[in-house]
Design brief:
This protein is mainly alpha-helical. The protein is built from 19 helices and three strands. The chain is extended and about 105 Å long.
């Protein structure tokens, strides 16, 4: 049986209560609660916290096992889901925030929710409270603007639903990407470890079998792979160089991504990487189209929408293009379709995207036109991701074989050279 957190109201009592119950499933628990006459507002698993979060809750709260200074997209998605469920059930926003504070396992995010709660008690709107300077890092600009529009037109529930869809898509994309990169990362680590072990074990073993004097006589005739192993054995510091080079490249890459000019150059280089460049580009297109459609459905003006997307699309070339498109719309009064089909921007976006945006604007149904191609490019990106992973497995096997094979052949050749030297 699993544990669930249930938020409910009793008959004739407007007060919202919450408790933890055990059941075989959410549907069984809901039926049990309704049999008691409860109005179930939300059922949430109570076992989805990490071990560190559970220990943090068990302790006094003064000791933190993990320092966190941010909130993940998955946590924002969960927060929006809880908030929408309770809001659609008629719970007051202040009470919703209080419940979220009690349930939140991220101490840093919990403090920001407490600031929002304080602002709400002073009469501020939810979007204004989220826009507090102390909270802007916790709540992205896209989220704050979507909530603001939802509050303004009285459709906060719909706005939260679109945020949930956007966050879920981002979380799923990130999860699949990390899952796809886990195997190559592990294989790369194994590659370095195996290489280090071979370089430390094979040379002394050959010296013990052959003898140092006999080995010196035939050293110049040894295969290059064995000579390389002896060099690495005599200079173990060289084993540290590859990891240091990788760490240095990652550091320089992240540093370069902080500056506009280098971000453009690095993104262009990234797109030239076989398969990976195309994969990242397609995911960036999916994020752009998904947020553009969500913002249009929410009622955000196209100029404001472009600025919101520019800060979240995570592709320097597309971000730079969105800045130019925004400038054309504001200064020249161009439409989105006219700006995005200009010769310079046509190089950034696929032809299908440009055509669907033009058709959507002409028909007055931009969001409806964008949704199908969002699904199309997402399916295409996932298929490319699976194909990349299918090719990674044999590539890693070939890489390990290319490293171990010459060593094995070199050992046999060394023994053959030694027998020939002994015979002569």
């Amino acid at each position: 049986m699993a544990k669930y957190r249930v938020i409910y109201r009793e008959p004739g009592n407007p007060k919202t209560n919450q408790t933890t119950l055990e059941s075989f499933g959410e549907s069984f628990l809901r039926a049990e609660c309704e049999a008691k006459g409860w109005q179930v507002l939300l059922i949430r698993s109570a076992e989805n916290m990490s071990l560190a979060a559970r220990l943090n809750r068990a302790l006094t709260g003064k000791i933190q096992l993990r320092v966190r200074l941010s909130v993940s997209t998955a946590e924002l998605c969960m927060f929006c889901e809880v908030m929408r469920s309770l809001y659609m059930s008629g719970v007051q926003m202040l009470q919703i925030i209080e419940m979220c504070i009690e349930e939140e396992g991220n101490p840093w995010f919990r403090k920001r929710l407490a600031i929002v709660q304080e602002r709400l008690r002073k009469g501020a709107d939810l979007s204004t409270a989220m826009g507090d300077p102390r909270c802007v890092k916790a709540f992205p600009l896209l989220m704050r603007e979507t909530v603001r529009i939802g509050e303004a037109n009285g459709r906060l529930g719909d706005s939260l639903a679109r945020l949930i869809t956007t966050f879920k898509r981002a979380v799923e994309t990130k999860r699949e990407t990390i899952s796809a990169m886990t195997y190559p990362a592990i294989a790369l680590i194994v590659f370095f470890v195996v290489g280090a072990v071979i370089s430390m074990k094979i040379p002394p073993l050959l010296i013990e079998i052959v003898g140092a004097k006999d080995l010196d006589k035939i050293y110049s005739k040894l295969p290059g792979s064995i000579q390389l192993l002896f060099y690495m054995y005599d200079h173990p510091a060289c084993l540290i160089y590859p990891p240091l080079v990788i760490i240095g490249l990652v550091f320089l890459w992240r540093l370069g991504m902080k500056y506009h000019a280098t971000r453009i150059a690095l993104t262009k280089f990234q797109r030239r990487i076989w398969m990976i460049g195309s994969l990242l580009y397609q995911f960036a297109i999916v994020r752009f189209l998904d947020m553009l459609a969500a913002n249009h459905e929410t009622g955000i003006q196209i100029t404001d929408s472009l600025l919101l997307i520019k800060g979240t699309v995570d592709d320097a070339i597309i971000e730079d293009s969105l800045g130019r498109i925004h400038e054309q719309i504001v200064t020249k009064g161009s439409s989105l379709s006219a700006a995005i089909t200009s010769p310079r921007e046509a190089e950034v976006y696929p032809g299908l995207v440009r055509q669907m945006i033009r058709a959507g604007e002409e028909a007055g149904k931009l969001a409806e036109m964008l949704r199908p191609i969002v699904d199309f490019y997402e399916d295409q990106a996932k298929a490319l991701l699976r194909r990349t992973m299918d090719m990674m497995t044999p590539a890693m096997i070939i890489l390990l074989g290319a490293m171990i094979g010459p060593v094995i052949i070199g050992v046999y050749k060394t023994l053959i050279l030694l027998s020939e030297a002994a015979a002569s």
